[in-house]
Specification:
The chain is an alpha+beta fold. It has two helices and three strands.
Length: 88
Amino acid sequence: MGKNQEPLKVTCPCCKAKLSVDAALGVVLSHEEPPRRGPDVDLTNAAGILSEQQRQREDKFADSPRTPPPASPSAISISTESSVSSVL
């Protein structure tokens, strides 16, 4: 870089990052990340959105088929005598 030349200050058109570039060498001397944007969400109706989502979940649950609970192990009777005698 020349003695009188200041680095070029450039803003990236895509991401809005700020770059300091040496004009003579064509290299980036420094880089400053663009400010991070928050999500574009309108929270004025957040309670209404959440209650609607809960209502939809409850409706889906109410419409889902009910299955009987699995039988307990004590309710299942297995005859082990016939299988044991056939092996011997």
